[in-house]
From TrEMBL:
Domain Orotidine 5'-phosphate decarboxylase positions: 11-228
The enzyme's E.C. designation: 4.1.1.23
Binding sites annotated in the UniProt record for substrate: 17, 39, 66-75, 121, 183, 192, 212-213
Stated name of the protein: Orotidine 5'-phosphate decarboxylase
Record flagged with keyword Metal-binding: no
GO terms assigned for molecular function: orotidine-5'-phosphate decarboxylase activity
Subunit structure: Homodimer.
Task of the protein: Catalyzes the decarboxylation of orotidine 5'-monophosphate (OMP) to uridine 5'-monophosphate (UMP).
Top-level lineage group: Bacteria
Gene Ontology process terms (BP): 'de novo' pyrimidine nucleobase biosynthetic process; 'de novo' UMP biosynthetic process
Keyword Plastid on entry: no
Amino acid sequence: MTLRNSDPREKLFVALDLSSLGEAERLVDRLGDTVTHYKIGYRLGYADGLAFGRELAAAGKTVFFDLKLHDIDNTVREGVESVARMGAHYLTVHAYPQTMKAAVAGRAGTGLKILAVTILTSWNDLDCAEAGYSGTVSTLVPMKARQAAAIGIDGIVCSAQETAQLRAVGIPPAIEFVTPGIRPAGSASGDQKRIVTPADAIRGGADRLVVGRPITGAADPVEAARGILIEIHGATA
C-alpha cells in the first residue's frame, strides 16, 4: 500500500535504540514535531521503554513496538492483547505460521497492526544456512511473506531490496512494507547487510522506513531527520 503524496513524516519511524529512558526522552523532546513515528525495541523496551511508548501514544505519536514475539500460541496471543491495551499502533512478530495466527487473534477488534519479520536485514545467505534453513534469503522471504498474507498479517518487515520481488509474487497492495536497514548516502552500514538509501527504498515500494543511528547518533538529529524527510518527499513527488 505504497503511501504516496502524503506527509513524509508518516513514512519515517525513528528507532529509539538507546540505552536509557532519559536519552530517549531528551531525543524525542529535541526532535519535536519533526518526527511523529517512533520504534521501540529490546534495548529501550527493557529500560522502561514500554511505559514510555504508552506515553508517546497518549501524546499523539505513532508507536511501533519491535518485540519480534515468537512463543506458544497462548503466550503470543495474550502478549499481543496486552500490547494493544497499551495503545501501540504496530507490533512485530516472527513470521512463523503458528505465531502469526496467534498474533492476528490477539489483535482482533483493536487498531493494532501486526508486522511479520521474514528474514532479518542483518542476515545473508550464509546466516540462513548456519541457522539450518535450506533456502536462501531470496527464496525464504517470499515464502514467509505469502504465508503472512494468507494469515491476515497487516504488514511485512523486509529489506527494500525485496519489496519489488514481493509485489511480483502477489503480496496484496493493502499489506504495508516496513523497511529497516536504511542508510542515507555516505552513511556507514553498521551491522546491516542488506541496506539502501531512503529514496531508493521508497522508489522500490517501501511504505515505511525505520531509521536509527543515522538520526539518533547524529550531531544534529533534527537536521538528520529533516534530510531524510526531504529525500522521502523527493522520492514520492
